[in-house]
Amino acid sequence: MRSKFVNYINRALLCGIALTGPFGCTEFLKEQAPSNLTPDSFYTIPDHAEAALASTYASLRFMGDGAGIFSSNWQLLEALTGTSTTETAQNSDLNNLYGLVHDGNTAHVVNYWNGLYRVIANANQVIEKVPGITPMDAAQKTKIIGEARFLRASAYFTAVRLWGNIPLITKPQTAASDDFLPARAAQEDVYKVIVDDLLVAEAAGLAWMDASGRVNLAAVKTQLAKVYLTMAGFPLSKGASHYKLAADKALEVITYANANPSTINLFTTYDDVHRESTENRVEHLFMLQYNTTVAGNPMDNFFPNFKPVTYNGPGGTGSSVPTAAFYNSYEPGDLRTKDQAGYFYTTYFTNGNGAPFALGAPYVFKHFNRTANGTAGVAGSRQNNLNVPQIRFAETLLIYAEAQNEVGSPTQAAYDAFKRIRDRATLTTPALGAYTQATFREAVWRERWRELCYEQITWFDMVRLRKVYNEKTNGFDNFVGHINLSSNQALQEKHLLLPLPKQELLNNPNLKTQNPGYPGV
């Protein structure tokens, strides 16, 4: 099944499915010439549904696409956090993000907007067209629609957190559509669609895990828990009711995992977080799928600048490196900071597999593929097929610990979930009785910063909490006024949202005004 779906994805990319125009891959087509196909005539057999869904999955990869020299789209959500800096400084857009002077022309902002709405457009086609395919197995149809609803919900979840009120499009569009130039919908309305989509996906008959990389039930439930957790915080401020919803949904995953520890669990080593053989398994509940026959892993901008850590020798990367302050904020003895055992390395092997050498500083190796790049005495394959994690079971545990604590106080179950993260890091955790609700809250937040760093999660925590980890005090500052040590610049109220892309404002007058604090058109 996995190879069949991978083939669908490969065909989707190689044939360039747009689903808003002609489709030119003849393998799926028997009745009509490819040049005559339209979205209306394409969706006629089950293979068309699978191919269209594969195209939607493939469109998720915009996150790793390039954003100019020495930069990728994913860096948007890292540069703003203050936990990373750059060694290259050759990309003006990336520098603007680090300096908190980005605007509606910044490439990463524009690319994220376009990429997310491309996912939404492709998902809308699947959701609208697949129900009419006859004959088609009902369970297959329900599953495909459920997966598409998850993908649409996830895209909207990212978009609403980045821009606030955004266009809400739930049907395929053409130039003749009434909402071809859509206005911005209230965040409350966007979240309603997100929750509805995830509830449909939850009931779609998905397996708890899926080694092929397709959406699974554990991912859906964790994403739903994350949505509820976000709704409990700013800006919707739903409070206790949604903290409970988040805790209950995360607990469903934890309960299943406890009964099936070989299926869902924490990995025993941090190496497993970035090992090809563990992709889509155990801790990895959902990942972006990469294979060099179609698209290779896009995280190379974490490599140290002009240091020979791969088979390529010295390479000009290093556009995202950890700040010394953030690295040094980890507790003494934290395994996550131990060289070549955790998420940061301070040494590696010359050209990937030669003599060891000191890097001169800690670097992020959380997404480093030893199989592709080489390791001690073993040459790399030069094929970086490593997937990029989107949802890990570690996050499920931390969602539960935080949300359950907010319901009243730290319970034994919340403490146990939190302690599992610290146990893997070989840290001693004070007894449950040593915590108050307030101290446990900040303890969980610190673990989120340290466990989930550099996975495009931290920025969203900063926005929903209106709090930022202070590496100097080990406490949390208010968002507005916090100094990002990567640039010594203070976060402002306007930074809680991104600016709308300038070209979107020019093309669509119904978007009205720019987000507060940013220059208009």
Automatic annotation (TrEMBL):
<dbReference type="InterPro" id="IPR011990">
    <property type="entry name" value="TPR-like_helical_dom_sf"/>
</dbReference>
<keyword id="KW-0472">Membrane</keyword>
<keyword id="KW-0732">Signal</keyword>
<dbReference type="Pfam" id="PF14322">
    <property type="entry name" value="SusD-like_3"/>
</dbReference>
<feature type="domain" description="RagB/SusD">
    <location>
        <begin position="363"/>
        <end position="518"/>
    </location>
</feature>
<dbReference type="InterPro" id="IPR012944">
    <property type="entry name" value="SusD_RagB_dom"/>
</dbReference>
<comment type="similarity">
    <text>Belongs to the SusD family.</text>
</comment>
<keyword id="KW-0998">Cell outer membrane</keyword>
<dbReference type="Pfam" id="PF07980">
    <property type="entry name" value="SusD_RagB"/>
</dbReference>
<feature type="domain" description="SusD-like N-terminal">
    <location>
        <begin position="73"/>
        <end position="229"/>
    </location>
</feature>
<dbReference type="GO" id="GO:0009279">
    <property type="term" value="C:cell outer membrane"/>
</dbReference>
<dbReference type="InterPro" id="IPR033985">
    <property type="entry name" value="SusD-like_N"/>
</dbReference>
<protein>
    <submittedName>
        <fullName>RagB/SusD family nutrient uptake outer membrane protein</fullName>
    </submittedName>
</protein>
